[in-house]
Amino acid sequence: MRTMAAGLQFFRSTNGVVLTPGDELGKVSSKYFDKVVAVADGAVLWPEPPSQAASLLDPVSAKIDGPDAEACQDADTEDEEVLAGSNVKQIINSISLLLSAESSTLLSSCLELLQTLVESIDSGALLGAGSSLERLIPRLCSLEKGRDILYGLIQLLQWWPRYTQLISLDFKSEWLSELLQENSEDAPAPVRLEVQREQLLASLCAGLAQCSNSLSWGIDVSFTDESDDEGEEDSNHRQEFFRLAADEFMKLGLFVSKDGRNSSFHVNPEANSEEQLRQFELCGKVIGLALLHQETVPSMRLSPALRKLLLSNAKLGMEDLAAVDPNFYQSHVLRILEGHYTQEEPPKQLSDLGLTFEDEIGGVKTELCWGGAERVVSEENKSQYIEKLCHHRLLGCVRPQVDALLRGVHQLISPEVQSQLQRTVSAAELGMILCGATKLNLQEWKEASTKMEELSPEAWQMFWEALEAMTPEQQNGVLEFASGSFHLPEGGLAALQFSVAPTRSTEPTAVPCFSTLYLPSYNSVQEMREALVMASYGHPISK
Predict the structure, then answer these.
(1) Residues near 281 by Cβ (< 8 Å), separated by ≥ 6?
(2) Cis ω for the linkage preceding 508 (within 30 of 0)
(3) What are phi and psi of 149, to 5 degrees?
(4) Which of these is catalytic: 110, 397, 435, 513?
């Protein structure tokens, strides 16, 4: 044994023994690890080639003879190729404990160990880490060297929403920006764009048409219609450019808000001319460039449904339509789904409504399926009708516009990057990366909210404690899950008319058009917090 600085002790361990707090000895393949780092409250493995391990020890302590040598030799051959998930849990648990120490030497050693661990395992080995990994991820986000490790770890984590939702939003924005840049040792200069404030989009379009270089290394912007202030940085011009460009796109009528609050905007079905399709494509390029430069475009409040489409070819549902067009959702979808027509005067049957598998927008009727004009909506097929209706309203009727928008985005975001993005970033998080998160005052939110009579006082209090235990980004995600947008309406939280009610469902649900959140019963604040975060992330947890 050799004592090192900061209380670390190094042990020869050719059989891969792991010592962890309160645990029995566990084996790890000596193919990967041959040295153990020990401290007062536990120990973790330290990776090192076998040939170098003994050099760290004095000749006496490095020599292993007799029965111990035979035991080490036997253990070295058993499961040599496997780094078991249970052992990974032990290692990560020890690292998460050690990272809380104040010693800079200990911190550096643990991060170096973790870096090698990340390079030695696959995503399956992380599954057993559980709460240890949940403690580790936020800590890594707060450390400069830890963020470097997360770049490698995120490749393993992105298959598991339980873990990716723990990664901070600013790290995800930074990670995405790096991901969008082309992998080249000789990075080309950013594309130089000269634009006019008075004719911003026209000059932008002309400038992009003339550039032959890839946009993957970004843009530098200068305004030609006025003299630049001496010493003003390009990044400042760029920030102003993105703000002005987003404002211009929102003024063109490409997007429309029907939520009554201007909290989110969806594609305008009537914006379908050739010129407008070119504008959609240009808008997509600006969105991609904003993500590349980590610049926000606050006025571009895209609907959750549209953000889902930017992430992937996602399946859109009733909750998305409720957020985009709450009036249509209430008057038509809920009326059919919940059978409100049976309570009208005089009472009706669904067949009395004369509905077929068609949708009419702007006086134009479209069949929702082959022969839809002749297919009558009945009690037996109304769920299928609603599914097809939601898809048509959100995507089918605006397919050319969405395709044009995606063509522009995909000039910056390749299919490979998009695949990683959709596994790592939720639709709500993408909105926050683009627009910035809303600063929420929980006390003000609580005072402006309504507890439905059926909800117990204990559940009501637990909900606010669960929100308090969340990060600001997670709070924004819950707000969007419940109300359809994390952007507040004019009048703020008081105008939101937020309410909380109980449900017999096994997972949190919401009706965004009413800003109503439905909660199952939970045994603890932590259990409720996790369920709400995962539901807002698009991966609800059933009880």
Answers:
(1) 404, 405, 407, 408
(2) no
(3) -65, -35
(4) 513
Q: How far apart are CA 486 and CA 290, in angstroms?
A: 20
pLDDT one-digit tens code per residue, 353-379? 889 999 999 889 999 999 999 999 999
Residue 64 pLDDT greater than 50, yes or no: no
* Dihedrals phi, psi of 220, to nearest 5 degrees: -115, 135
Assign 28 to helix, strand or coil. coil
283 in active site: no
Query: All domains of the chain, ordered by start, with CATH?
Result: 85-167 (no CATH), 183-225+233-436 (3.90.1750.10), 437-537 (3.30.2410.10)
Dist CA 381 CA 496 (whole Å): 35
Tally Cβ neighbours within 10 Å of residue 240.
15
Lowest mean pLDDT among 122-131, 157-166, 390-399: 122-131
Is the backbone of residue 301 left (phi > 0), alpha (psi -120 to 50) or beta? beta
Rounded Cα distance, 176 and 266, in Å: 24
Tell which wins on pLDDT, 454 or 145: 454
Please give the Cα distance from 78 to 74 (Å, whole number): 7
Angle at CA 140, nearest 5°, toward 137 and 142? 115
Is 58's pLDDT higher than 70? no
Q: How many residues does the chain have?
A: 543
Neighbours of 504 (CB within 10 A): 7
Question: What letter would DSSP give residue 295?
Answer: -
* Angle, vertex CA 379, rays to CA 376 and CA 383, nearest 5: 90
Cβ contact 361:269 at 8 Å? yes
Question: What average pLDDT does this structure show over 236-255?
Answer: 91
Q: What does the mean pLDDT of the chain come to?
A: 79
Helix (H) or strand (E) holding 101: none
CA–CA separation, 415 and 413 (whole Å): 7
Cα 91 to Cα 424: distance, rounded to the nearest angstrom: 24
Three-state DSSP class for residue 543? coil
Three-class SS of residue 266? strand
Q: Quick one: CA dihedral 46, 48, 51, 57, positive or negative? A: negative
pLDDT at 499 over 60: yes
Entry pTM: 0.80
Measured CA to CA, the distance from residue 256 to residue 266 in angstroms comes to: 6
Distances (CA, A) of 313 to 182, 288, 306, 307: 24, 17, 10, 10
* Stretch among 182-186, 190-194, 248-252, 274-278 having the lowest mean pLDDT: 182-186
Among the listed residues 485, 482, 493, 496, the one whose alpha carbon sits nearest the alpha carbon of residue 434:
485
Q: Distance between CA 314 and CA 293 in Å, rounded?
A: 26
Q: Are strands 450-451 and 499-502 parallel, antiparallel or unpaired?
A: parallel
Predicted confidence band at 301 (pLDDT cuts at 50, 70, 90)?
Answer: very high
User: Quick one: pLDDT band at residue 12, thresholds 50, 70, 90?
Assistant: very low
Coil, helix or strand for 320?
helix
Which one, of 119, 121, 122, 131, lies nearest residue 93 by Cα? 131
